[in-house]
Amino acid sequence: MGRIVVTEFISLDGVVQAPGGEDFKYPNWSFEIDRGPAGEKYKEDEALGSAALLLGRRTYDGFASAWPQMEGELADKYNGMPKYVVSRTLTDPAWNNTTVLSGDLDSEVDRLKSEVDGEISVPGSIQLVQGLLERDLVDELHLMTFPVMLGTGRKLFAETTDKSRWHLAEPTVYGDGVLLTVYRRAA
């Protein structure tokens, strides 16, 4: 059975927009703060340990334009692994092993979790993550919090119709005060 694992770079004030690029007031803001070698290794191991990627359309477009030109173990993993993009407009994805999910999000994710064995990683994809959280479809949150307040930008957490409980599993500090928190759904 697959597990939905959201992985985000986030500022102290909850901004997740453009940590590594994009048109934004503070593009690449996460690269201004050193995660250190252990933080880099954590992110690489996290990606290499994923069985599949679940992406929103914007994140998919960014990944699909960058990763096919890259080389190395992580590039090989991303380029070869199954990728699922939630979109109502994308019909013919060019990136290898990509499937478009255009139906009901609950049904599509339930099917995906039954078909994929292991972690289904959801990097970035703000609107998709908000939809997954609203529908209680996320099993685990990996938040790498950078010690910076951006004051503007799209935030990860939107209002939801109900509360949800989480268990802090693994707090770790990397590099120059970058805090990794892994939260799992409370039973």
Can you tell me about this structure?
The chain has 187 residues and is an alpha/beta fold. The chain has a single domain (2-185), classed as Dihydrofolate Reductase, subunit A. Helices cover 27% and strands 27% of the residues. The protein has 5 helices and 9 strands. It has helices at residues 36-48, 57-66, 73-80, 105-115, 126-134; strands at residues 2-11, 52-56, 83-86, 98-101, 118-123, 140-146, 166-168, 172-174, 178-185. Strands 1, 2, 3, 4, 5, 6, 7, 8 and 9 form a 9-stranded mixed sheet that branches. A hairpin with a 3-residue loop joins strand 8 (172-174) and strand 9. The model has no long low-confidence stretch (mean pLDDT 94).
Which structural traits does this protein have?
nine-stranded mixed sheet; 187 residues; 27% helix; Dihydrofolate Reductase, subunit A; alpha/beta; 9 strands; 5 helices
Compact overview of the structure:
This protein has 187 residues and is α/β, with parallel strands linked by helices.
Question: Strands, helices and their partners?
Answer:
Blueprint: E1 2-11, H1 36-48, E2 52-56, H2 57-66, H3 73-80, E3 83-86, E4 98-101, H4 105-115, E5 118-123, H5 126-134, E6 140-146, E7 166-168, E8 172-174, E9 178-185
Parallel strand pairs: 1-5, 1-6, 2-3, 2-5, 3-4
Antiparallel strand pairs: 6-9, 7-9, 8-9
